[in-house]
User: Which sequence fits this backbone?
């Protein structure tokens, strides 16, 4: 056959009769698993099979990434005809299966990352050789966007890896380096160089004139045994148990992965692929998958690239960063910034305090080295970027300041003035306050237009979100700088307007507050905590309150002069009683809602039952669930309505990354669409009648519902 | 029409593991020897028997392909004898008696052998696969967990401690040992080889001298499974008011895994006349009820209430009760729910001491109850069992 070179791939045959198909989608930045591509691929592969002079085909990539998977954007829309959608998948399988059963060897020479559909393309080859490079990842990440491999991967992986290992890869979305993929059976060989890889591929082709896929080979034994063996039964039972434990039934695709394997592995592969296709169509139709694609994938990806920055502002370069205060937060900020290559002056009141802050980076790096995630060289380079000092003048020449001293207005006032005295007039001053309004702090500043809130979450090195707070006088240049800084340290920024508690603390606070109200109303404490994790929140409201510290809650309430609502007064009274009359102050003192025995598991404090008499039937589980989630969502909507949030997307991202709002709902605002806007409003109205004004629904939401719109139509 | 129980026979129970006495005996053979014993005991005219109904849970391998018909054929009763195998999990042996009674009452059959069989040493538990526990579309939304986790959930929810469950188990052993020593198990038969040599003549698992203290060192059986396979959390998701799952059950306070068979002869009044046999008991009423499948094993009380209501009776009308000791917490909860103490419950011990051959147990309990009611010259008895999947079964019998 003739050589081919088009916008999707090229094909040529060498003197030995070995064809090479190079995937090179010239119109895309990355090779994508698309309907058009697969059609063309199958066409060319079939032609090669039909040509007697061709002995076999090597499939490889003309781009650094072999193939990254499918284009998820197409799955954001409703699937108009599910039957036709399934049929399209089955048509694709037909073509791919003809390659598998065509009697001619196809070898995937995996010279770059092959994920999802890219890996499924490789599984439809008879042999897989990967280049041994730390840049190459092989796996099925689909579960992270609420899906699972729908191009044959779910059916075929267990034949290669065994049911248990395949379940692990599919359910956890493992992306393995080539040596691990080899060990686990996903690929057949690794090669050290491209030349070695191609030579091995040719050798396989010449040695294997009529290859049979494991799933077509009656003699093939599934590693670890098929389902109806003692091992298989144990694996399947354990898989459902653990998926139940980890997902609480909230992530349909996790269940579907086990289902496809359960139903499919007992029957011929072509019929199993039908099962996979039907389940994939169903999974792609779930609101959970769409939420995870829309918010979890695209929105967070866009935000991480700095979508929130004012467009006309030039990029703000940060070479030198001044961090004021070397406590827990300051130390973490210094670490992530130095890691991004910035020169960090870490200033504390004493040299000793500053050194201690730097030691935090040493500790993190030593841990990373122990886990082989860093090297002594990288450690030295990073530590060299952090200059601990007690000299306020040492921050001179900084491009950006991040103040992370104690939450005390007078102290912050002093620090602002002292720092601005040596800071360049055009440089930006950020405060990492989590509770004090930025506009109030900006009053200390001679240049409030350059003053902005840069709110980190603890622990800074782990938490991905940064909440950027725009004060009354903050100008676009400062917003751009804060966003550029956040992107540089590889975190995800959202930009919000000033308000008490900003967005995240304010909404998160309602979760904690609702947990306490439920306790006061007689809901057993274990039930509150369990239902919270069941609906996908990472930690129950009582445990979280212990972490924050009950004493701090009392302090924040008492030190804030603003007029408080009835619900704020109610939760304050509860916490004050616990702190003052029962000496329950929080986790730090080993005594909050929980007891924290040394070296043991935390346990709910038995004394709670004396103060709040538990009654299983006090509030139905359904209402416990709704009240904990709806309350946060209603407050998030208020933030949108009041202009604290600048977009629904920021609210979604902030809730998911800031306090672990369940991602399958799409985030704290998408949640309203997820449960149905009318249902949400009706629930809140019912709760208002029972529990008071903090359940008041803003008129604008009722208008949106009356117009039959989506929450994402807000303001449009 | 009334359904009468003319007799009941059970085999000895051998430990259901590779060292168990009966591992070399097929389940068909266990059932066959029971049928032969029944025939020879009464010089039974086997042409009068229509059908064999056997409960059996693991219906694969030795127990596959309708073991009741295999047993019927092996019994020598004749080619006319039909067989049907049923599976209501742990309730199977009693279910077969209830179905036999219903056939008799309807007039569709005259005389039926009904019972159950299970060789747990030869056909391991779980060998028959399970849609319910393995298909994720049932297991995950249903919060389904293995029975041991359910039993521990019952203990945690209702406050049965390790000490209390061990006390209960020790008492079961004490009662069984005493009944065994005094010869109360009159309907029990030994299992012999083809030469007529005894293989096992007593219940292999009874451990005289067991005390709560001697059980205290046993490791919880379901702790690791609960943690590793996520089942503790799956169970607590369904019962959020329970803070912690306490794993109190272990090999010593749960039913023993054993081999055994049991049968009863159930027929009409007319059949009795033809056989020349006097009925011992009649089946007054029988009921089943379904419960939440996660906690799974709470069925005996609701099934009993239903049976009592059907019979126009209350719990005080029952003289003796057999409630299957699948796990200590099951009879403990049953007694608490029914407001009774243990003086009339499992008076000769139970499955903790003697074992629970899944498909056979229901019929074994009925036979034990019949012997003891007669020995004490009492009238009314209740048999009830908890059942996998969240079911309960109860049957009330009365002396004739």
Assistant:
């Amino acid at each position: 056959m003739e050589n081919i070179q088009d916008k999707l791939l090229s094909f040529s045959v060498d003197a030995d009769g070995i064809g090479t198909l190079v995937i090179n989608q010239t119109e895309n930045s990355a090779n994508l698993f698309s309907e058009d591509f697969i059609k063309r691929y199958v066409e060319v592969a079939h032609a090669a099979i039909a040509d007697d002079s061709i002995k076999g085909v090597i499939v490889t990539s003309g781009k650094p990434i072999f193939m990254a998977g499918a284009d998820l954007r197409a799955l954001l829309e409703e699937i108009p005809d599910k039957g036709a959608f399934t049929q399209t998948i089955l048509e694709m399988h037909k073509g791919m299966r003809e390659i598998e059963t065509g009697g001619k060897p196809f070898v995937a020479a995996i010279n770059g990352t092959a994920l999802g559909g890219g890996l499924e393309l490789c599984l439809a080859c008879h042999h897989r050789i990967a280049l041994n490079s730390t840049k190459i990842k092989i796996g099925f990440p689909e579960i992270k966007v609420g899906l699972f491999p729908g191009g044959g991967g779910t059916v075929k992986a267990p034949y290669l890896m065994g049911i248990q290992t395949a379940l692990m890869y599919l359910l956890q979305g493992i992306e393995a380096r080539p040596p691990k993929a080899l060990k686990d059976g996903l690929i057949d060989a690794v090669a050290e160089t491209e030349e070695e890889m191609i030579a091995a591929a040719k050798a396989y082709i010449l040695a294997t004139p009529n290859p049979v896929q494991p799933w077509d080979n009656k003699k093939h034994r599934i590693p670890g045994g098929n389902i109806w063996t003692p091992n298989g039964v144990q694996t399947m039972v354990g898989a459902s148990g653990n998926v139940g434990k980890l997902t609480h039934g909230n992530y349909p695709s996790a269940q579907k992965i086990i289902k496809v394997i359960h139903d499919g592995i007992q029957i011929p592969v072509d019929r199993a692929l039908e099962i996979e296709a039907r389940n994939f169509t169903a999974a792609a139709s779930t609101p959970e998958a769409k939420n995870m694609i829309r918010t979890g994938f695209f929105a967070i990806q866009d935000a991480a690239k700095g979508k929130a920055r004012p467009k006309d502002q030039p990029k703000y370069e940060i070479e030198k960063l001044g961090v004021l205060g070397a406590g827990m937060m300051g130390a973490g900020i210094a670490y992530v910034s130095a890691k991004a290559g910035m020169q960090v002056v870490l200033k504390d009141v004493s040299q000793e305090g500053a050194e201690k802050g730097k030691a935090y980076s040493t500790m993190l790096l030593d841990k990373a080295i122990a886990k082989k995630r860093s090297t002594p060289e990288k450690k030295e380079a990073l530590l060299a970027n952090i200059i601990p000092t007690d000299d306020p003048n040492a921050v001179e020449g900084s491009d950006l300041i991040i103040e992370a001293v104690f939450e005390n207005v007078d102290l912050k006032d002093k620090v602002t003035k002292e720092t601005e005295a040596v800071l360049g007039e055009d440089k930006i001053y950020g405060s990492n306050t989590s509770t004090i309004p930025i506009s109030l702090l900006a009053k200390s500043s001679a240049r409030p237009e350059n003053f902005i809130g840069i709110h980190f979450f603890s622990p800074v090195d782990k938490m991905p979100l940064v909440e950027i707070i725009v004060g009354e006088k903050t100008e676009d240049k400062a917003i751009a700088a804060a966003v550029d800084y956040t992107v540089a340290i590889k975190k995800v920024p959202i930009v919000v307007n000033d308000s008490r508690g900003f967005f995240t603390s304010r909404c998160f606070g309602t979760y904690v507050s609702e947990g306490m109200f439920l306790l006061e109303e007689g809901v057993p404490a274990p039930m509150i905590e369990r239902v919270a994790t069941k609906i996908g929140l990472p930690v129950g409201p009582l445990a979280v309150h212990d972490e924050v510290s009950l004493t701090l809650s009392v302090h924040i309430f008492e030190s804030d002069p603003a007029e408080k609502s009835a619900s704020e007064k109610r939760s304050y009274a509860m916490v004050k009683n616990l702190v003052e009359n029962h000496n329950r102050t929080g986790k730090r003192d080993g005594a909050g809602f929980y007891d924290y025995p040394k070296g043991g598991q935390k346990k709910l404090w038995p004394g709670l039952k004396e103060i709040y008499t538990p009654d299983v039937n006090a509030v139905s589980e359904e209402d416990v669930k709704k009240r904990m989630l709806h309350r946060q969502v209603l407050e998030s909507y208020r933030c949108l309505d009041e202009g604290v949030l600048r977009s629904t997307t920021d609210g979604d991202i902030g809730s998911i990354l800031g306090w672990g709002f369940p991602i399958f709902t799409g985030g704290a605002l998408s949640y309203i669409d997820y449960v149905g806007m009318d249902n949400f409003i009706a629930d809140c109205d019912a709760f208002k009648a029972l529990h008071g004004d903090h359940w008041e629904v803003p008129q604008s939401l009722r208008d949106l519902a009356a117009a039959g719109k989506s929450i994402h139509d807000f303001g449009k | 029409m009334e359904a009468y129980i003319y007799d009941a026979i059970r085999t000895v129970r051998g430990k259901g593991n590779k060292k168990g006495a009966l591992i070399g005996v097929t389940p068909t053979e266990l059932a066959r020897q029971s049928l032969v014993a029944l025939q020879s005991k009464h010089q039974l005219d086997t042409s009068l028997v229509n059908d064999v109904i056997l409960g059996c849970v693991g219906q694969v391998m030795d127990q596959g392909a309708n073991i009741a018909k295999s047993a019927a054929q092996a019994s020598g009763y004749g080619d006319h004898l039909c067989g049907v195998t049923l599976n209501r999990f742990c309730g199977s042996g009693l279910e077969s008696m209830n179905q036999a009674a219903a056939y008799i009452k309807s007039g569709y059959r005259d005389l039926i052998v009904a019972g159950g069989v299970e060789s747990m040493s030869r056909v391991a538990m779980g060998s028959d696969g399970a849609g319910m526990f393995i298909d994720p579309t049932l297991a995950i939304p249903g919060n389904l967990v293995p029975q041991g986790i359910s039993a521990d959930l019952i203990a945690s929810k209702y406050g049965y401690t390790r000490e209390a469950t061990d006390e209960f188990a020790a008492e079961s052993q004490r009662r069984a040992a005493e009944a065994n020593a005094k010869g109360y198990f009159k309907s029990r038969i030994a299992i012999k080889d083809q030469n007529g040599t005894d293989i096992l003549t007593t219940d292999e698992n009874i451990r005289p001298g067991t005390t709560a203290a001697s059980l205290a060192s046993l490791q919880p059986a379901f702790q690791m499974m609960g943690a590793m396979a996520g089942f503790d959390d799956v169970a607590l998701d369904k019962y959020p008011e329970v803070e912690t799952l306490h794993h109190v059950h272990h090999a010593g306070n749960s039913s023993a895994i054993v081999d055994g068979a049991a049968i009863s002869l159930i027929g009409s009044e007319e059949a009795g006349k033809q056989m020349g046999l006097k009925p011992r008991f009649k089946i007054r009423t029988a009921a089943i009820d379904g419960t939440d499948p996660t906690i799974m094993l709470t069925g005996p009380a609701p099934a009993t209430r239903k049976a009592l209501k059907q019979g126009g009776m209350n719990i005080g009308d029952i003289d003796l009760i057999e409630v299957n000791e699948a796990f200590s917490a099951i009879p403990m909860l049953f007694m608490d729910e029914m407001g009774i103490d243990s003086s009339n419950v499992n008076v000769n011990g139970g499955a903790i001491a003697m074992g629970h051959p899944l498909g056979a147990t229901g019929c074994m309990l009925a036979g034990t109850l019949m012997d003891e009611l007669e020995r004490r010259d009492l009238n009314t008895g209740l048999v009830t069992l908890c059942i996998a999947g969240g079911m309960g079964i109860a049957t009330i019998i009365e002396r004739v």
Residues 301 and 311 of chain B are 15 Å apart (CA to CA). The longest strand of chain B covers residues 258-267. The mean pLDDT of chain B is 97. The interface with chain A takes residues 124, 126, 129-130, 133-137, 139-141, 143-146, 228-234, 236-237, 240-244 of chain B (CB under 8 Å).
